[in-house]
Amino acid sequence: MNRISAGFISLLLALAVSLPSVYAQGAAADSSGSGRSLKLTLPVAADSVKFVSMGDTGTGSRQQHELAKVMLDYHAVFPFEFVILTGDNMYGSEKPEDFKRKFEDVYRPLLDKGVKFYASLGNHDEAIQRHYELFNMGGDEYYKFKKGDAAFFALNSNYMDKEQIEWMHKEMGSDNSRWKFVFMHHPPYSSGGKHGSLMSIRRVTEPLFLQHGINAVFTGHDHFYERIMPQQGIYYFVTGAGGRIRRGDIKRGSPLTAVGFDRDLSFMMVELAKDLLHFQVISRAGETVDSAALVRQTQQE
Amino acid sequence: MRYVAIFAVITFFSSVTPAQNAFTYEEQKLVKSFQKRTTDYANTRVKIERRLPKLPKAATIEQIAAHKSTLQAAIQKARANERPGKIFTPEAAAMIRRMIRREFTDTWDGSEIRASVLEAETQGAVVRINTPYPDSAELVEMSPTLLLSLPQLPKGLRYRFIGRSLVLMDRDNALIIDYMTNALP
Question: For residue A132, what are the CA distances in angstroms to A99, A113, A138?
Answer without folding.
Answer: 9, 19, 8
